[in-house]
Amino acid sequence: MHDWLIVGAGFAGSVLAERLATQRNETVLVIDKRDHIGGNAYDYHDAAGVLVHRYGPHIFHTNAAVVVEYLSRFTDWRPYEHRVLAQVDGQLVPIPINLDTVNRLYGLDLDPQGMEAFLAERREPVEEIKTSEDVVVSTVGRDLYEKFFQGYTRKQWGLDPSQLSRIVTARIPTRTNRDDRYFTDQFQQMPSDGYSAMFRRMLDHPNIHVELGTTWNETRDRPKARRLIFTGPIDEYFGHCYGHLPYRSLRFEHETRDLEWAQPVGVINFPQTEDYTRVTEYKHLTGQTHPKTSLTYEYPSPTGDPYYPIPREENQELYRKYRTAASRLDDVWFLGRLGTYQYLNMDQVVGQALATFDRINATRTPTAAARAAE
């Protein structure tokens, strides 16, 4: 009998396992249905010897010093500023939209003030911004919305932007300068040895036991711990008693090419053409030197492993039913992207896990309100 059972060996589960083992000297059993640790951030060397991410690109960026300090105990870092191009109207142009994007697409020579005037002429007033479409057309107008966002969103989510919460496109800025970085966070670096190496160090403790290829359903009827941390889909824990929470999945196609470089940047988006949404070339991200290169093509799917909670109000209403049920449980904690049904970046999951540990550590008998991680 362990002190804790943690379902899921990704960021949320691994951080809490490490904290509980090292800071409270408690025993932890971590299970994961996959054959590896690291969750969706898992990376490995493919047959050609190129370090790739099995589940698409994971770019680490954050403004949270506490997260950097914590993860730096388990990895060194290499600087990497992510840049993305989009294939639009037969050209590769920067995304997020910036000054160069507009000048190239429209054959203009605008300066920042000219671009602001250009956008101001095209913005559509929206009385109340509710949807992803509202966000974009009120910022850059209808033409850029259709070129960059409408088709990409339909592929990614299987829904029109007018059917999705504003949070989907509110994450993407528009710039009137030439800054072509995808992120502007103060800390933009990648684990120097990869994510999997970082997770192995995090879980390397005599109090932590890991069982891979083990599902929650196989374990729930054979209690192995006094308390539970659940990072899987919250509706799965409750047997979908209120209904299935909708998720969007992905299908990945990996290929290796016999050339040193295939793309000018790490990721190219395809909002207008192709069935896939983007193509990633990993050596840009990892800094690896290799005569060959490996790429991943991403195809959104309505079926498969749950990757993205679908941001619609009716889905949040359903989630709130599960959250209420979770708050009534003793010694069960839910967190992570699936456990709290929200789109979270890696640093946000780490921060959530560290905050959850602080709440656990504050009392041996946590209150119901504290247990439902937000």
Q: What is the compact description of this entry?
A:
Among the domains are: 2-37 and 203-244 and 310-371, NAD(P)-binding Rossmann-like Domain (Rossmann fold, 3-Layer(aba) Sandwich), CATH 3.40.50.720; 84-170, no CATH class. Helices cover 34% and strands 21% of the residues.
Instruction: Give the averaged pLDDT, no decimals.
Output: 94
- CATH topology term of the domain at 2-37 and 203-244 and 310-371: Rossmann fold
Oligomer: single chain
For the record, give the distance between the C-alpha atoms at the N and C termini, rounded to a whole number: 28 Å
Q: How many DSSP H or I helices?
A: 15
CATH homologous superfamily name of the domain at 2-37 and 203-244 and 310-371? NAD(P)-binding Rossmann-like Domain
Named at the architecture level, the CATH assignment of the domain at 2-37 and 203-244 and 310-371 is 3-Layer(aba) Sandwich
β-strand number: 17
Family: Belongs to the UDP-galactopyranose/dTDP-fucopyranose mutase family.
Cofactor: FAD
Protein name: UDP-galactopyranose mutase
Domain UDP-galactopyranose mutase C-terminal: 147-343
What does this structure look like?
This protein is α/β, with parallel strands linked by helices and 374 residues long. Among the domains are: 2-37 and 203-244 and 310-371, NAD(P)-binding Rossmann-like Domain (Rossmann fold); 84-170, no CATH class. It contains 15 helices and 17 strands. Strand 7 (84-88) and strand 8 form a beta hairpin. The protein is globular, with a radius of gyration of 22 Å. It starts with a strand and ends with a helix. Pfam families: GLF, NAD_binding_8.
